[in-house]
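Hi there, hope your week has been kind to you so far. Thanks so much in advance, here it is.
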Amino acid sequence: MEIKPIRDEQAYREALREIAVLMETDPALGTPEGDRLDVLSTLVEAYEARTFPMDLPDPVEAILFRMEQQGLSPKDLEPMIGKRNRVYEVLSRKRPLTLAMIWRLHTTLGIPAESLIRRPAEH
């Protein structure tokens, strides 16, 4: 089983093709094919993390995403942000989040604090 690091686009595409073939056979864990699939997947994941890094969303995008996930309305954010007009100011990027708001959004909705403390994107 010769496996090499993925260093370029061609090796990346080849690894993806081989993963697709292996996944069709659904190899059992601990078999040579299963081990190969595991190692190739790990290499592809490492290559993608280096080549296509994903940045955290800005705070408003993180809040809107969680609202969509949980079917929340701006009214549902009032306990975490304040009165409805303040919620709308935050969601429209007219008012920054305070530390207290960040803490409540993080603990109540589980939004990563790292996303909430970022500077909002200019829209």
Notes: The chain has two domains: 9-51, 59-116.
